[in-house]
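Whether sequence alone determines local backbone shape is best considered at the level of individual chains. In the encoding step, the backbone of a single protein was reduced to a row of integers, each denoting a local shape. For completeness, the protein is quoted in full, as a sequence line and a line of structure tokens.
***
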Amino acid sequence: MPCRRVHALARSQHRERKEGRLPLESNPPTPFPNNSPHRENLRTPNFPHERRWLSSAVSSLRSCHSQNSGVRKWENSHRRASLGIRMFANFVPLPCSPPTGFGLFLAHFGRHLPGVTLQDQMTELARQAKQAGRQLARLTAAEQNAALTAMADALAKSGPELQVANAKDLKVGRSLGLSGAMLDRLALTDARIAAMAQGLREVAALPDPVGRILDERTRPNGLRLRKVSTPIGVVVIIYESRPNVTADAASLCFKTGNATILRGGKEALNSNLLIARLMIDAGRRALGDRFPAPAIQVVPTTDRAAIPALLSLTQYVDLCMPRGGEGRIRAVTECSKVPVIKHDAGICHAYVHAQADLAMAEQIVLNAKCQRPSACNALEPLLVDAVVAPKFLPKMAAALSAKKTEVRACARSLPLMPGAK
């Protein structure tokens, strides 16, 4: 078996080094590059040959794959190979403490080990997420809510730590030439961290969506049909700058019994990884071994090839939900082999009906446009019924002008909105 072969290889190398027949490396390879944001989490190993053991193990396992023919043989070899790699987990410094997920272990180390491809790394992430989804199904609603509440408390208490990680991302964003609006979306202020934690508490307070009877009927022949809400499985969510999406998406998927793999923008990697780690650690403290850590995973590489690699795994991934600009949505849709739920051009309208409460409509428009203009769901076109336009538009124009908002009106609206262009 491949794992026996690799185990024997490692023991043989260890014995040769102890006897002086195989020299130790003076400058052993480093699993992380010097500029990696995860390098600070790496413990320095006591023996230089620890890394070579794993490198030899993976190379040997890959050679075992190539010697098998047929899909079934390759799958069986891959299962044994995964077991063999796990045997060597104790020989190398892990960037995250078990059981955070062996998928993250491979993603961290795989790019620097011979024979481990990006496809292998994404496959391991997705496989672990699939297993975690089955464990999520065994959690009660009370356990889910306890974990979400613990996650919210952890985020609220970790404001300074989050802002240190976010400062690194802001520095990266400036070096990439991001606009002021994009940098604003990237920033984590005290208020946004508090809102992120409050969002998790609100998700915990929602009724359990799983197991609800959505429809029920009986056919003329007596056959009873019932539509019941169930988890989807493994959901991949792709998004851009805003780190708070990490907490929002992970909490919603967790509440609905779905494992999630999150792929944020490269400029937010430090913030996203820390948010996920805080949530995972809090879930462990709340539920112990019943909490499936791989249910929340962040893709820890900025390599764009990770997206098509991940979205080709139809045996593990059940759904993809991309967020962002039209070009990103199109690129994801074209490369994905799994179902995709997408939005279109992302134009956010508001419509004021003739029978609407005009005072409420004014406050809704102000909030939607002025509360955070840089957000992707900020209001853009405002449509008003012609019946109420003469009464509503002058007040709306004055309220928007007070918020220093420029208004560009159509020919019919222009006379009703002083200061509009």
Summary: The beta strands are 213-218, 224-228, 234-238, 259-263, 296-298, 319-322, 350-352, 382-384. The longest strand covers residues 213-218. Confidence is low (pLDDT under 50) at residues 1-7, 22-112.
